[in-house]
């Protein structure tokens, strides 16, 4: 069973309002085992609406539309569906009565214009709306030589749409679907290599048509592998995913650091708490991101002993008392090491992370950022390439620091400066 979601409204098509309904509906349809094939967004123009509904009814089994069910002249969903399937609008007296009663309960007289909200394409039924004046529309469209298409239209107001979805649309889709089927996802988070390199490490896993499927997405240098399986229930789906997940972990090793909502800082926080250790951070290039993320990941575990943002060499010299820093390069291992050793001692932490400044030419092929991680008995001096888009350079570097700490906590040493 394939579905299309249609979001309607000039405010959406022009970008004045974010379309969160489509995302929410796509997640709910997937949970029901329905393959979401298309998202369509259209403005308040009748001809465009009719064309989109005709196309959707022709190519999928379930159409879910949001918006356009109000009483004003730019609310065109009723007319659009009727025109798309070639039927007239018919007034439903029971729905009209329900709308009038809602106005009465709220101490208001119903404007006559609201009567159009009781008009439905011939053959359609009303989806009750307990929280608003716009009933939804449910219509089964018979198609020649194949199964029917079920069309559902609900208001764009989430507080009205969501109860209507749960109470009426879900049972109708489950009944039309027949045998039990759900679609579930499992997300594995990875860090430390590029997207192409990681794909090369997973031969055949990301092939189109594979079951279960494996998708790959990247955000701020974090790579997410999404395993998707369909089955009669959750247990069957996750059982089908397990061999693929095991293969991913076997092939990627420590590059795969967590699942679902895990971030590097949350993994570090768990490892530190489990080993009863703490970390402190003095950072220049990352502007406080490392300590901010750690504090947010473990607000009650006290794994972050302290966090400082370095504003320049003079400040670092005053903090450390090391006059040799006057002549140091801001982008150097010496600065990162001095910061790491000082912040660990000052905060009495088990680990101290120091991040030096970015080089002046941060986007060149040889551009490096220096990070040091100090413990009472040694200092790991590390360097990482920092050539990347300026929008992700800071966050990528912060993740490099967190990932290096993770590897140390796991007993897998990061590569030191040669």
UniProtKB/TrEMBL annotation:
Family the entry assigns: Belongs to the CinA family.
SUPFAM superfamilies noted in UniProt: CinA-like, Molybdenum cofactor biosynthesis proteins
Classification via Pfam families: CinA, CinA_KH, MoCF_biosynth
PANTHER family, sorted: NICOTINAMIDE-NUCLEOTIDE AMIDOHYDROLASE PNCC, NMN AMIDOHYDROLASE-LIKE PROTEIN YFAY
InterPro entries noted in UniProt: CinA (IPR050101), CinA-like_C (IPR036653), CinA_C (IPR008136), CinA_KH (IPR041424), Competence-induced_CinA (IPR008135), MoaB/Mog-like_dom_sf (IPR036425), MoaB/Mog_dom (IPR001453)
Organism expressing this protein natively: Lacipirellula limnantheis
Highest taxon, organism lineage: Bacteria
All copies of domain MoaB/Mog, residue ranges: 4-176
The protein's name: CinA-like protein
